[in-house]
Fold this protein.
Amino acid sequence: MYISQLSLTSFRSYAQADVHLAPGINVLIGPNGVGKTNIVESIGYLANLASHRVSNDAPLLNFGAERALIRGTLHRGSQKTTLEVEITSGKINRARINRANPVRAREILGMLRTVLFAPEDLALVKGDPSHRRKFLDELLVALRPIEAGTKNDYERIVKQRNALLKSIRGKSKLSASQENTLQAWDLQLATCGARLMRGRLDVLMLIRPYMQAAYADLADGAKEAKAIYRSSLESESDENLETLPALEELSQPEIQDLILGAIEANRNRELDRGISLFGPHRDDLTLILGPTPAKGYASHGETWSFAVALRLAAYRVFGDDDPRPGSGPILILDDVFAELDATRRDRLAHIVAGAEQVLVTAAVVEDVPEALKGHFFQVSPGQVVDA
């Protein structure tokens, strides 16, 4: 798939921008800070309804604007679709498909697929667990858009259950009403959490072999890359890097029972702390390189290679999910080549060069490998023009 025209209104640094992109390789060149990343960020937002740079929408609006608009003309095989998202400060975002009446923004999830490589990807390896949970959740929603509702519902349930736990924190005895209300939230958390966890485990099983192969290609197979799902259901004293026995083989109802069991067995702990201690909101993805965890032990180059391998794995999974010609995801490489040595730079370039559309940002032309020299654009503050 590819985007032929991108239009931005009041998005980030652009009061108005219209960019005509081509299939194949598109390269955005310009000094740091002029708005290259804003362009590719908008495409990522159109695909995922989320930014890879910020956790909320407020910074996406041009200063002083009440709303921002992203519109893209998407080509997927023989189908041409206009997608539009309106980001409104303090209100629910809306979307349009082919300029029809507005719909809920999440109605467009899954129509445009992107895989974005960015400097922020280092957090996948070095950062806290939330970055790795977000990686799994975004890929899950892209593959199964209906799970966006599961994710949103789960976040709401945890928030409201935590509010209840906080309100009764430290009480030696709960009233019957409080106990019944808490048990109702227990069941909701376990039911929705089990579905989310099962989805994450399914995604992990899909990406694992591709991640291992991609890392071997990027780093000459010097060390084996592994990824293990770490559940909050495990004992906190367990120092082993293995997960619960056969966790990946458990059904959704079995996971639900495990969550409920953990909650019931640790009722006093949750009441003492006033927070929900068990569920996918506290899980992690442990990345292992050779015999040691990648976090804290991998070199800078190894960390970059691992992060890139995760993104390449997502790209391969998308290809398996929809192998029809013209349906592969758009690849976005945002200022990543300056961080890679020459060998890794060339290997990554040759791996991604065959995608139907590749968007590359770089400060100078010299940072772009020969295999990715395509249609060039010059970016200056508030403006994108053909170079």
Q: What stands out?
A: The longest helix spans residues 176-219. Confidence is low (pLDDT under 50) at residues 236-243. The two ends are 24 Å apart (CA to CA).
